[in-house]
């Protein structure tokens, strides 16, 4: 069994806890469905947010989805001029027998701009 990474991102219009948590749940749900994940497959999850998101930790959304036994950690994204604002990124480490090419990364809404090669 291999350890693989699944990437994803989503943006919000406003930095409100409600909107950040809703967008994060939408992203995690989409990644879960696309990759047929079970919570028991997840080794850890890293979140980053741009500096304009301060209302809540995205990891809180994962905990409310039952991922409370999964190690979760949040970071602030590097402030690069011109970078996509109000963006939540995630890297999910999973234990899987899937090949790297079979992993489906998920970018939602404005975050699709980050990986045009996947759309």
Automatic annotation (TrEMBL):
<feature type="binding site">
    <location>
        <position position="89"/>
    </location>
    <ligand>
        <name>prephenate</name>
    </ligand>
</feature>
<keyword id="KW-0413">Isomerase</keyword>
<dbReference type="GO" id="GO:0009073">
    <property type="term" value="P:aromatic amino acid family biosynthetic process"/>
</dbReference>
<feature type="binding site">
    <location>
        <position position="107"/>
    </location>
    <ligand>
        <name>prephenate</name>
    </ligand>
</feature>
<dbReference type="InterPro" id="IPR008243">
    <property type="entry name" value="Chorismate_mutase_AroH"/>
</dbReference>
<dbReference type="GO" id="GO:0004106">
    <property type="term" value="F:chorismate mutase activity"/>
</dbReference>
<keyword id="KW-0028">Amino-acid biosynthesis</keyword>
<dbReference type="InterPro" id="IPR035959">
    <property type="entry name" value="RutC-like_sf"/>
</dbReference>
<dbReference type="GO" id="GO:0008652">
    <property type="term" value="P:amino acid biosynthetic process"/>
</dbReference>
<protein>
    <recommendedName>
        <fullName>chorismate mutase</fullName>
        <ecNumber>5.4.99.5</ecNumber>
    </recommendedName>
</protein>
<feature type="binding site">
    <location>
        <position position="7"/>
    </location>
    <ligand>
        <name>prephenate</name>
    </ligand>
</feature>
<dbReference type="Pfam" id="PF07736">
    <property type="entry name" value="CM_1"/>
</dbReference>
<keyword id="KW-0057">Aromatic amino acid biosynthesis</keyword>
<dbReference type="GO" id="GO:0046417">
    <property type="term" value="P:chorismate metabolic process"/>
</dbReference>
